Amino acid sequence: MPFFDRNIGRGERGFRLAVGVAIVGAAYVLLASPASHLVALIGVAGVVTGLAGFCPACAIAGRKSPS
Asked: How many CA atoms lie within 13 A of 16 on its CB side?
């Protein structure tokens, strides 16, 4: 399906992975409130899009990152 073609380049994928892992780690180490689970969920979204190489929001906007 053409809609699920990778639309995130290698550099951005690495950045999303690193930032996503850092956000998840910070959410559970530094934040002690129930909101930390929501922050961790945002980090997980970054990790998943980084691993998959596909961002649904970027696809809807028609954005493609250079590989």
From this structure: 20
pLDDT digits (tens, 9 = 90+) for 15-38: 999 999 999 999 888 877 778 889
The closest alpha carbon to 16, from 55, 39, 52, 47, belongs to 47
Closest CA to 54 of 38, 37, 67: 67
Distance, CA of 36 to CA of 43 (rounded, Å): 11
Angle between helices 35-52 and 10-29 (to 10 degrees): 160
Rounded CA-CA distance 10/47 in Å is 13
Are 46 and 27 a contacting pair, CB within 8 Å?
no
Return the amino acid letter for 15.
F
Model confidence, pTM: 0.80
